Amino acid sequence: LDWTLLQNAADSAAFASAVGAIARPVVDPNDPKGDTNIASGIAAAASSIQNNGFEGNRLVIDISTDGVQNTELDGTQPGAGCHGGDLVQFQQTCFDVVEAQRDAAALAGIVINGIAIETEFTFGQGTLHEYLEDHVIAGDGSFVAISGDFNAFGGALAEKLAQELSAPVIPIPAAVYLFGSALLGLVGLARRRKIH
């Protein structure tokens, strides 16, 4: 789906229907689970946010996954890559790939939230939501929602969206005004103390 401005209930309902019609993509019919390339998803989403023609008060990427990063950024698997080798190689290759994209998005002021679909092995990394907390999410107020399986995903998505939409947003001009007012108040207080 392309970027869509939702201005009323009808817009929201139409968008929800369009989202509901999207099937889970399968890259390789011989490997129906496919690889997991969270880093590429973050990179593509960050680029799309920065070039979408909209101006928002809050920039958020949502990562929904049932697995950990297990490829290079371009989807290749050099040598043992992220699928094999020892745990140290796994961490150096796959963690670095996803964390580099996470950090770049965070530097651009983008918050990354996640939904962990807890259905797969995480290569000794604890639970999937712990992996997302440690290596994927970023920004003020970022969080991970948990879905026990694909059947519970719809409920987890609804809860995550409700949490995101209820987060207070202070537009930049208002934030500057509030910061400036507080700064002037402190200056005035300091002057009063010097006079007394």
| Biggest β-sheet: strands ordered side by side in the sheet | 1-2-3
* General form: globular
Number of helices: 6
Q: How do the SSEs run, as a string of H and E?
A: HHEHEHEHH
The main sheet comes to:
3 strands, parallel
- Average pLDDT value? 78
- The parts where pLDDT drops under 50 for at least 5 residues are none
Q: Report, as a whole number of angstroms, the end-to-end distance.
A: 64 Å
Kindly estimate the percentage of residues that lie in beta strands according to DSSP.
5-15%
- Structural class comes to mainly alpha
Rg calc: 21 Å
Roughly how much helix do the residues carry, as a percent range? Answer: 40-55%
Could you give the count of β-strands? Answer: 3
Could you describe the 3D structure shown?
- It is a single chain.
- This protein has 196 residues and is mainly α.
- A three-stranded parallel beta sheet has the order 1-2-3, with helices on both faces.
- It has six helices and three strands, in the order H-H-E-H-E-H-E-H-H.
